[in-house]
Amino acid sequence: MNARGALGEYGERLAARLLAEAGMTVLERNWRGGRTGEIDIVARDGDVLVVCEVKTRRAASFEHPMAAVTPAKAERLRGLAERWVQEHGGAPPGGVRLDVVGVLLPERGAPVVEHARGVA
Questions:
Q1: Which residues are the signal sequence here (predicted)?
Q2: Tell me, what's the pLDDT at 42?
């Protein structure tokens, strides 16, 4: 794994921990929907299925991690969420929500992890 992959994996571990601490159940990580892409984290929040995109950046980078989720990326995530639901028996009673977790790694100190619910 290269440095970028290791950075992303670290951010995803932090995000999964944050979601679990918020009372969610992580169902899957890095689910691949064929050639269309990957869902970083699939979780349950009560009766809602949560499809979560994780973006990790070093503090010196130009843009905030959450700014990396463009409308095109959000649309691709919606398609992946539909595919996941079809392959896993249908949508739960509470429906599907798209969340983003942004992880910012400062040069010193603890990572800053932000969770935005229902962003797309």
A1: none
A2: 97
Most confident of 56-60, 64-68, 103-107: 103-107
Q: Which domains does the chain have, with CATH numbers?
A: 3-116 (3.40.1350.10)
Report helix, strand and coil shares of the chain as percent, to nearest 5.
35, 35, 30
Pairs from 40-47 (Cβ < 8 Å, separation ≥ 24)? 40/12, 40/15, 41/12, 41/15, 41/16, 41/101, 42/84, 43/19, 44/92, 45/94, 45/97, 46/94, 47/92, 47/93, 47/94
Mean pLDDT of the region 28-45: 93
Joined together, the tokens standing for residue 34 give 């064929």
Closest CA to 29 of 21, 16, 40: 40
